[in-house]
Structure formats: C-alpha cells, structure tokens
Amino acid sequence: MNIHINGKAYPLNHEAQITVTAALALHFIEPQQSTFAVALNGDFVAKGDYDTTRLKNGDSLDVLLPIQGG
User: Fold this and answer.
1) pLDDT tops 90 at residue 52
2) DSSP structural state of residue 58
3) What residue ranges define each of the domains in the chain, with the CATH number in brackets?
C-alpha cells in the first residue's frame, strides 16, 4: 500500500488500512504543535474523525500548518 503526505510517498509493508492518526504519526517524526488542518484527497477531515477515517492505497493527505505573518 502506498499513501502520500504533503507530496511525499510513504510505502507501507502491509495492505491493511490505516487511519489518518496513524498516517500522521508516520509524517510527524518529532512532536508537533496541535494546530494543523488535514485534507484527504482534497477534502477537509475534522480532527474528531482522524481515528475513524481510514486510508486506501493511493490516498493523498495534505497537512497544513498555520503561517504567522505580519
């Protein structure tokens, strides 16, 4: 199974589906701030749905962190 997070490929050794939460653990090696938004194949995923939203082969996640400016 292969998924993409912010354009980077993450090949997984198994065919079992994983959740958005598990995918984020692959992407964030170090602890991150808790404020970010996630889109699955272009559609927003509510934070409360991360544990129940399952990914399929070829899915793409976009993780958007807030940008501070002046």
Assistant:
1) yes
2) T
3) 2-64 (3.10.20.30)
